[in-house]
Amino acid sequence: MKIKLLLFICCLHAVLVSGQQRPVSITVDVQKQKGPLKPIWAWFGYDEPNYTYMKDGRKLLSELAALSPVPVYVRAHNLMNTGDGTAALKWGSTNMYTEDKDGNPIYSWRIVDSIFDTYINQKMKPLAQIGFMPEALSTNPDPYRHYWQPGRNYKEICTGWAYPPKDYDKWAELIYQWVKHCIERYGKEEVETWYWELWNEADGYYLLVDDKFKVYCKMYDYASAAVKRALPTARMGGPHVTGGAGEFMRKFIVHCLSEKNEATGQTGAPIDFLAFHAKGAPVFTNNRVRMGMNNQLKDVDRHLKVISSFPAMKNIPIIIGESDPEGCAACGMKTDPQNAYRNGTMYSSYTAASIARILELDAAYGTNIIGAVNWSFEFEDQPWFYGFRELATNGVDKPVLNVFRMLGMMRGNQVEVSGDLTYNAKTIMTAGVRGEQTDVNGLAATDKKSVTVMLWNYHDDDIIEGEAAVELSIRNIPFKKGTLHHYRIDQEHSNSYEVWKKMGSPQSPTPEQYKTLEGSGQLQLLSSPEKVRVENGTFKVKVRLPRQAVSLIRITGA
């Protein structure tokens, strides 16, 4: 009997030991630098431009500007739409172009100025979208405005604004007058730092014609000529195609390099940057969300492969105009359950892991990604934590915004990260992050004063069980003493959603509850700042990292 009991205890011990996850060793070598850490994350976008100057919109923009060491670029749809400026889901308008009874143009810059003024006052910059078609210029204007709501067919949003111009000369003159007005209002030097782009996803729903490529190229020829006529040094680009449109991108580059320009009659069209979109593909299965980061990274890989195949495009700036876990920011989790990841820490860990892998792919191809637009902003007067893809809800920051606060602290050159790392961009593209393994990895940077390391524990499945033990070693630190700050996003830190749920999920929080939620949405320390010594250039620390959590380790020299 004693022997049987002893065997049982031994077997139980073996099971417990085997169930424990082996510690993950991560090494950061400060001397192994890869060049400047490009702040590709400092780009944001949204469909509803009229939210820009509203109460919560202004508040969020001020936070985005404050977290970034470089000017933040903002991309918004619907800047040229006809209407009274009333905001709605997937809709916006500025009424910049109408016509009198004789068909003469009437230009109005009041609403679009209020949008751009808000950016400029925050020292942000527009990624100015030439879109969409004013009602008076649309080839098929009726019906013009849509009234789409979540749960309805997404194609319903494509109404009269999604058609090409019936008069290309009038349309080009409108673009010329808009750029000219911006120069007069903000100054030539300021506008030279902006990016001007044409349309959005012309290969998909957003351009309602049969021969989308031919029509888009004609529109681009006229738009780019108008922009350059107003400001020869302006930065103009496109085509902002969907992630799967690699062939469209290839043909567009050929057009800009060697084909006839429909506006000028000359060969080629100006192209100062290239843009495409990259989206993940989450699904709802087994009563939980399963993310699809592999799809997003494949989109990036597909387009970088095309762009890098053209010697003439070497070093051309590349903007991922929408870089997200999926496609519809205004589709909440109640109508689209696969979007339930958006309120909590999974959105945070996904964002950290995907940005690092986009930088990895960019380095592998030797290309020049300068921006990856996070297509999420905020939605005014909507239910709390409805599951929109947004950075804040009713003025309270969601956990994902704190990833960008962490990234804003990472300065200087990117540093090599090595160790017991299971996943990189290639392995994720091949099979995602599935099964027993989790993606425990890091992104590191250093400048003369500090070393920063972002760590994450990501998995495609939306579950929080599976803590990782990380043994972090930072080598060749150039100072002997420093101060350690450890910031954390998890179930207990930097997480307004969990605090809101513990309150009973109020849809009308009291002023005291609102203040608590507002504070819980800020980036929080895991522990108090600590004075540390660096022994022989090395600092080691053990980190318990819950699944879907993100940490930022920052050591500042004394």
Q: What's a concise summary of this model?
A:
The chain is α/β, with parallel strands linked by helices and 558 residues long. 30% of the residues lie in helices and 24% in strands.
The radius of gyration over CA amounts to 25 Å
Largest sheet: 10 strands, mixed
Q: What separation lies between the terminal Cα atoms? A: 63 Å
- Helix percentage range: 25-40%
Number of helices: 13
The fraction of residues assigned to DSSP E strands is 15-25%
Please count the beta strands (DSSP E, at least 2 residues each).
24
In the predicted model, the low-confidence regions spanning at least 5 consecutive residues are 1-20
Mean pLDDT: 95
- Based on Cα principal axes, name the global outline: globular
Structure classification = alpha/beta
InterPro entries: GH, GH39_cat, Glyco_hydro_39, Glycosyl_Hydrolase_39
Pfam family, one: Glyco_hydro_39
Keywords: Glycosidase, Hydrolase
Protein name: Beta-xylosidase
Write the layout of secondary structure elements.
Layout (H helix, E strand, L loop, with lengths): L1 H18 L4 E13 L6 E4 L8 H13 L5 E4 L20 E3 L5 E3 L2 H12 L3 E6 L37 H19 L1 H4 L3 E4 L13 H19 L5 E6 L4 H13 L14 E7 L3 E3 L2 E3 L2 H16 L9 E7 L20 H21 L3 E4 L19 E2 L2 E2 L1 H10 L4 E7 L5 H7 L7 E8 L3 E9 L9 E8 L5 E9 L6 H7 L8 H10 L3 E2 L4 E4 L5 E7 L4 E8 L1
Parallel strand pairs: 1-19, 2-3, 3-6, 6-7, 7-8, 8-9, 9-12, 12-13
Antiparallel strand pairs: 1-16, 4-5, 10-11, 14-15, 16-17, 17-18, 18-24, 19-23, 20-21, 20-22, 20-24
Protein name: Beta-xylosidase
InterPro entries: GH, GH39_cat, Glyco_hydro_39, Glycosyl_Hydrolase_39
Keywords: Glycosidase, Hydrolase
